[in-house]
Automatic annotation (TrEMBL), chain A:
Compartmental location: Cell membrane
Membrane topology note: Peripheral membrane protein
Record's protein name: Peptide ABC transporter ATP-binding protein
Gene3D superfamilies according to UniProt: P-loop containing nucleotide triphosphate hydrolases
Organism (species): Nonomuraea aridisoli
Automatic annotation (TrEMBL), chain B:
UniProt signal peptide: none
Similarity annotation: Belongs to the binding-protein-dependent transport system permease family. HisMQ subfamily.
InterPro entries given in the database record: AA_ABC_transptr_permease_3TM (IPR010065), ArtM/GltK/GlnP/TcyL/YhdX-like (IPR043429), MetI-like (IPR000515), MetI-like_sf (IPR035906)
Occurrences of domain ABC transmembrane type-1 (ranges): 73-266
Protein name per the record: ABC transporter permease
Keywords: Amino-acid transport, Cell membrane, Membrane, Transmembrane, Transmembrane helix, Transport
Topological category with respect to the lipid bilayer: Multi-pass membrane protein
Listed Gene3D superfamilies: MetI-like (1.10.3720.10)
GO CC annotation, single: ATP-binding cassette (ABC) transporter complex
Organism expressing this protein natively: Nonomuraea aridisoli
Membrane spanning stretches: 21-43, 73-97, 118-138, 248-266
An annotated Gene Ontology molecular function: transmembrane transporter activity
Amino acid sequence: MSVLTLEGVWKNFHGHSVLRGIDLEVRPHEVVSLIGASGSGKSTLLRCVNLLETVDDGAIYLDGEEITDPRVDVDGVRKRLGIVFQAFNLFPHMTVLDNITLAPRQVHGVPKARAEEEAYGLLARFGLAQKANAYPDQLSGGQQQRVAIIRALATQPRLMLLDEVTSALDPELVLEVLGIIRELKESGMTMILTTHEMGFCRDISDTVCFLDGGVLLEKGPPEQIFTEPEHARTREFLRSVLESGRF
Amino acid sequence: MSEWVKSERQAERERFRRAHARRSASIATVSTVVFIVLVVWVVTQSPGWPRVRETFFDGEQFVKALPDVLSGFLLNIKIFLIAEPLILVVGLLVALARGIKTPAFFPIRALATLYTDVFRGVPTILVIYLIGFGLPALRLQGIPTDLATLGIIALTLSYGAYVAEVFRSGIESIHPSQVAAARSLGLSHARTMRFVVLPQATRRVVPPLLNDFVSLQKDTALVATIGPLEALRQAQIHAASTFNYTPYLVAALLFILLTIPMARFTDHLAARTRRRRGA
């Protein structure tokens, strides 16, 4: 069974449709990338899955349960999802350790000692063991984003949503974050990510989706999308990315 | 691509949401009614209630006191309307003076700091006494002797210190990068303040400022202690001649009527700010 299914999802803002009937299926351990120009609806799609936005039509299923039903417990759904934002959104008044253990302790009822032990484990695994007691503003952007990923990971989510996680980073810091995502894929994490890093996208994705004007125009394995895209719009987009040197 | 046609599933969802909203509204109504009934019941069942009703809720006294208290209340409104702009000016000037870094102007900065320290430390009612009785006693030329004017001066001095701190916290909350950007364009400190920092800072401090306004509206009653015939003073006069406290209730109601719109306006502004941030 698929982890996540989107069925004809529509989202309107001020009379303008940002998502126009999106269908998508994400299987266990699959990595799905969403690519497309700004305003194509990639981020909105992630926000809809996280229930940060209410869909205006269609349905989203997480492990077969419809999460777009208004009767559903929103917090219960979000407990099973991890999301990482472009701007990190770490809590500036908490140490790295407290950022990571907040949700496990407050939402999942994990005892303090165990939550911290697991947090130290994750920090060590991603090379941040020395930073446990630092505050976010004492870290580089790359380190902050790695902490944000660990924070999302600490609740052992069923599905990770990564929204432009490298866009706010200096080029030399991008690699360390991409490394972590690659490692997540190897550990079998199911992920949906939006990205402008086409090389990375091609490398890590099982499926690439090209969104254009709120429509999922084209979907397939990366080799197909990047070498022989069907649609002229997709070719145009890839060419403009190539010309801007982001490939 | 096809246009959006609302599906049956979405229509059902919207029906459910509407029903849910109606249910929330009726629960809120019922719980409010129950709460009010409970409070009224506890108060009216108390042993001293008949006596309290007589002294505080006398309809006849209410009607008799209303015209005088109301005319006194107009003076409160006048004091408030004159004091408020003065307070804003004093507050802003003092806040700016505290931010001056030029060494030659150190005395001004020190004076501004001293002012906020002193007038935030002294209870407002004492400031009113000291200004109201002390200032005319100097018998200097041009010092006003009108009691309401003296009250306005006292309130301005006292509240100016609070408002200065509100402005200062607003100015300090603007990120240094904004100053850096303005200064790097060649703007002087003064122009940076005027065109970049203050416009952002004032927007940020509107809710706490309005909170101080609400507080000022009722503190105009403190001016009663030096004698002008405002609402509280009028109520005192009535109460003193009849030994009935209903006139105080009249004054209290008038103050509430004035402050509630201000409080709701503050809430409205806060909600608007939240919406703008897209929460």
